[in-house]
Specification:
The chain is α+β, with helices and mostly antiparallel strands and 137 residues long. It is built from three helices and five strands, in the order H-H-H-E-E-E-E-E. Helix 2 crosses helix 3.
Length: 137
């Protein structure tokens, strides 16, 4: 990510070569993600599975969200500014800043673990793959 060009973290999904052609800046990247990648339920479901299974994709999406000062609601796959809650029929989901790095930018899903993070006994190191990060208000 240099010279003001922000590559799309979903490169390769939905025939995405690398975001909006010639796009510069985070606002255009977020517009691209909302329209192109989150434009249908099928696309959201496809990305939901990929993010949950791929630690590198998870980290790339979190970095783009951090830079754009937005967070992603896992339940509905909608982007929101840090100060806005995601309104659902029975509750409001809110972004809660955490001290565990990039994990808080996708609210409602733990960071996927790599095989190297799992011990021979099958246990995870403390702090990895935390429980769901929800704040209902």
């Amino acid at each position: 990510m240099s010279n003001g060009f922000w590559p799309c973290p979903f490169k390769g999904f939905h025939c995405c070569p690398d975001g909006v052609a010639g796009s510069k800046g985070i606002p255009r990247l977020m517009t691209h993600i909302k329209r192109h990648h989150f434009g249908s339920d099928d696309r959201k479901d496809n990305l939901r599975r990929a993010i949950a299974e791929d630690p590198n994709l998870f980290t790339s999406v979190c970095e783009a969200l951090r830079l754009s000062e937005q967070w992603l609601c896992w339940e509905c796959m909608c982007l929101h500014s840090f100060r806005r809650g995601c309104h659902h029929e029975d509750r409001v989901v809110r972004f809660v800043p955490t001290e565990v790095g990039d994990m808080g930018f996708i609210v409602g899903v733990p960071r996927p673990c790599t095989v190297s993070e799992v011990s021979p006994s099958g246990e995870l190191p403390h702090g990895l793959c935390p429980s769901l990060n929800h704040n209902f208000g």
